[in-house]
Amino acid sequence: MTARATTRLSGAGKARRLAMALAGATSLAAMTAALTLPAASAVAAGAAMRFDIPAQDLNQALLSFATRAGLQLAYDPARLDGRRSAAVAGDLTADQALDLLLAGTGFTWRYTGPDRVALEALPEGGTAVRLDPLRVDGARTGERANGPVAGYVATRSAAGTKTDTPLTETPQSVSVVTADQMRVQKASTLADALGYTASVVTMPSVFSRLADDVSIRGFNVANGNTGMLRDGMKLQSNVYDGSQEPYGLERLEVLKGAASVLYGQLGPGGVVNAVTKQPTRDPLHEIGVEYGSYDRIQLQTDHGGALDDEGRWSYRLTALYRDADTWVDEVEDDKLYIAPAIAFEPDDDTRITLQASHQRIKTKFGPPLPDTGTLYPGPGGEVIGRDTFLGEPDYDTYDSRVNSIGWRVEHQASDDVTLRHALRYYRADVTWDYMQIGWSESFAAYLRRASDREEHSTGLTSDNSVEYRVTTGPVDHTLLGGIDLYRRVYDTDRYRGSFSLFDPVNPVYGTDPAVNFGANSGSRTESDQAGLYLQDQMKIADRWVLVLGGRYDRVESDVTGKAAGTAETTTDNAFTGRAGLVYLFDNGVAPYVSFSQSFSPNAGVDRDGRALDPTTGEQVEAGLRWQIPGSETMLSAAVYQLTQDDVVDTDALGDTVQTGQVRARGFEAEARSRFGPLQLIASYAYTDTEITRSDTPGEKGESQNGVPRHMLSVWADVGLDGLGLYGMRAGAGIRRIGSSNLIGEPKGVEAPAYTLTDAMVSIDLAELSPNLAGTEFRVNARNLFDEDYLTCNTVDGCRYGDPRTVIGTLSYRW
User: Fold this and answer.
1) How many angstroms separate the first and last alpha carbons of the chain?
2) How far lies 64's CA from each of 51, 69, 71, 178, 790, in Å?
3) CATH tag for 156-272 (out of 2.170.130.10, 3.90.1150.10, 2.40.40.20, 3.40.630.30)
4) Reported CATH class of domain 282-813
5) pTM
6) How many Cα neighbours within 13 Å face the side chain of 166?
7) pLDDT, tens digit, 9 for 90 and up, residues 262-290
8) CA-CA distance, 425 to 318, in Å (whole number)?
9) pLDDT, the chain, mean
10) Per-residue DSSP letters for 605-638?
């Protein structure tokens, strides 16, 4: 009887006793137990497969491992009595998984045949090289700030410090969305990926499939060239250049609150840092195919490994192709993404990585809809349908072509000094034509007009730093000094047509939009930002962590309006600072307090002809993290106050003034955990925003547009081995988005609250046949109960959210 059959028929205790009996029958001097799986092979042992073995009695863990890996294990079970294994989770080879299981137990292992493994005790005082109990990418061992994570619980990040730092030592809120989470939840956009993150508000996919529009703690962070980063540096020069592809990412990091001390010109809400997949020394291969709602077909592949015997050269190649329709008539969702990378390590202290990417998106824009016909019915009781196409089939288009290329160099000059240099060039070309729609009170009718846009943007960014570690008495310093540069060019040609009547309930297509190409309302913007920063992370007596940082920025911008041909030049200088203090308890609890600042330049002049000052922000935050020792659990909570000053608004005469102030206060909590076969994410956010000063009539005292006061989300998925459904996982999630204020709407009219339910089920096909090791089939459903919902603000109008979508994914990893 195989180990698998024993476990299923008799339970853990009987399986262990049977293993001991078999061992006794083999030899009294040196007992061995053989745990076998029919038809297993060395091919399976060398292939990456999904392991999900919780920390438990070592004998029982080895039974689970043998069943999953298809290997025969020979060992004396009596010698393992009382020993416990570490948890093993993630996509690993059998070798890597067995290393993790035996880490710290005093035992090692060796192959005695193609599919036979013997366990041996380490000699007294002996040690063996073991991998940390985390997902392994082959380049290095253990978790690192820009590396992969097994499951949902990251413990390190560089987003909050620009150094590889434990989250418990970071005095500011940071949420990390791992690649595993994005894969299990089937995130097709960054908005999907951030759906279970506290205090983050995103747009539905009619917008987010072509632009990453994100608000954090009530403030937009994606207005062109500010808060959306890639690998810690500025990326886009224009928010409409195209959305980033989640399949190309290792993780998403959300740093919440003012952070200009690290990244220069920013809004006060924070940043979203997309960390790309990196070259890996160990072989890594995946191919996948998807089919889903609205004739969605997607092919994706990811490969990595060493290019030479010594592993000095390694590579990564990630690619995706999608051909899909959407629930909106006449709107496609097509995409091509290719990202090659190569790394060279001439010695053990130096790593040079060259990366490039090409992305093309072909779709159509979902324009904002008027409140009449969405928030409330039109005068005839009409409601605009969420699947109604409001443009012209032969006119509307969104076609973006985005390319980037760059390199990163890291050199360990000594045990205490690390030098880093990074540079990236980015270019985007976008053709973007669509029909705008609105409601006219004077005509008591819906009107349309054409918007014809051609956009070109480039960005050249570089970050150069020195990290120096030194100890002075009881204080361990991590000093960071650097300079970053960003050269941005954004050139847009914009033309519009004249308004015409349109019935969105009974649309008639075929009109050739009349566009006035004689009036170009576009502009050309050129700006240069240079920032000099210095930071000291001080760890005092292994208890206190004090972080102090300062930065000086200079920004020069030239804006030329194409209608009048006039040019406007502004120069802004700003100093921003930051201070944070953390206390580290032995039980993993880490309370902290922090203060941070932000600034964002403004173009234009006020009513007196003076150049506008930068808009500034300040945040005070107090929080608590708890990384529970011996577990894969991270709990966090924070309270904060954010204040944004020198906000540009309009007075009663329509003149530009800079007297506005917005305040946000809130509380947020997140939990991320893995407990045995269960993985859990939970978050709650309370956000109270108020416009405390404004010369715009009716604004003072109002809450910010479209900021939900309450947000709650819970996601859990669990392995079903305990129910006899071996290799299966099932998951479900709920997202509750509360109502939000809409300035200018009649009293009592708000953007309505909504609740969305997501679900997932997957099966590891190796359970059906060992020849299918590494193969998984997964089905994801988003908005499972097909709730009809809106996201609104009075500036951009309303958009319908996604209906129920179902996607099946078949993937093979080796």
Assistant:
1) 29
2) 9, 9, 11, 26, 47
3) 2.170.130.10
4) mainly beta
5) 0.84
6) 14
7) 999 998 999 999 999 999 988 899 999 99
8) 19
9) 87
10) B-TTSPBPPPEEEEEEEEEEEEE-TTSEEEEEEE
